[in-house]
């Protein structure tokens, strides 16, 4: 129940919703039950069951200001003044008014509920997304993207369909159920006690179903997450799927997950739908029992109930099963919503491992150097990636990281903007430990260009501007420096051309130049270039390298290079191998080291 109320709290402010919803639901229930209790005087008039003595007794109730007292007074008054037809018209008018008011208040309560649901879902989805987007980079390396999307979309939708509807049943339907039970007790308490024997039996049966349904719901949502993840990976890697003729493999994998989801959902639906016929059968059996028991008492004249009261009692009891069944079904279907809610709250409760201090330093500018001192780093799997890394990157200088794949170069680059924290040692900027600096101000000083140009399915202008309120002239200026302006003008709508999912309408070199233009527009004093040209052909590499050279002018740069020809002019080259810096120096200095690792790499690339 803790998770249930926590999910409801996302619809805040709750106070502005609960009071009017409870009030309108209560009024709708009262007027809804009133329709059936008015059957008794209606039947009494039709069957000529009202004598003059009862009329006189009712006329003496004018001082009784209760709802029943006032109805009896005016009913008797109409009967005495206008006869049976007048009394019949009065009762029918009251019933019509009651039905009208009941449905008006019911509509208002439904409107309030829909507003409550939409607020809850929007706030919950926003909270999940906000928390997710602020989690550390390592979280996204471990989680499947499709699983995250499933939680934000489908799981939140399940909460809307199940949890909010349960809240409605727990208020509106409960009011109606209580009003019906009160009316039944008012007519005949002994018949009602006999009828309520069905409740414990139904309760035991439904509670058993609920426990099993929670497990099926959790499995179903996990299967659905797997399906979304699989589709995301398959559609995103369609070139690889088709290139390796793996359509059958992917199809079979999808089929296995799809069938698993089908079975879980079927089990859940089968158990959920079982509660409705069970409740209905039990209800009908009780009605039959009441007819036999109550009818025999009336026929044998062993009960004070009149025929009209007994008919009204049966009519009301036939209605009491509807809210009881709705409450039962709502709590049964809520299990799927609770299972989804638990998955959502796990994401909401996830805390970022990389956090700012209570009062972090706000860096306005970069003035001196970045110092990496005795840094070690280990991922979650306890594999040591970096060992005792030391170097200083002075302002305006360029340091290049080279070495074999998997040696730790990219990890070093990820530690500088604090995507991860070192497990040992210290990284400082201008003498301040980066753990004491706000992440926003630290990264605002840096421009990052990676091997894979990350672009969005938007216009070229928006991809270069990306979150900045800049003019077209500023974007064009950045594109020119990045050697991108000419090919942009060749696009169908130049800077307003939509480039497709991840920029698939452009070549690799074009995408990379847009990525560089984006970094140029930010105008950062520090650059981190992670193998920005390694995946390009010779012609594209030349254009991109020129763009990078323009970008690096008068900036402090950390370069990860695959092709050594691109970093020969670096102020210092660090050779990283198996998590350690094994050589350092300029290009010429490193070539002089006999049997040096850098010299071997250079020789291999010149062959």
From TrEMBL:
GO MF assignments: ATP binding; hydrolase activity
Name of the protein described by the UniProt record: Multidrug export ATP-binding/permease protein
SMART domains linked: AAA (SM00382)
UniProt subcellular location: Cell membrane
Entry EC no(s): 3.6.3.-
Superkingdom of origin organism: Bacteria
ABC transmembrane type-1 domain residues: 22-336
Matching InterPro entries: AAA+_ATPase, ABC1_TM_dom, ABC1_TM_sf, ABC_transporter-like_ATP-bd, ABC_transporter-like_CS, P-loop_NTPase, Type_1_exporter
Residue ranges of every copy of the ABC transporter domain listed in the record: 370-603
Keywords (A to Z) from UniProt: ATP-binding, Hydrolase, Membrane, Nucleotide-binding, Transmembrane, Transmembrane helix
TM segment ranges: 21-43, 87-108, 167-185
Species in which this protein is naturally found: Emticicia aquatica
Membrane topology: Multi-pass membrane protein
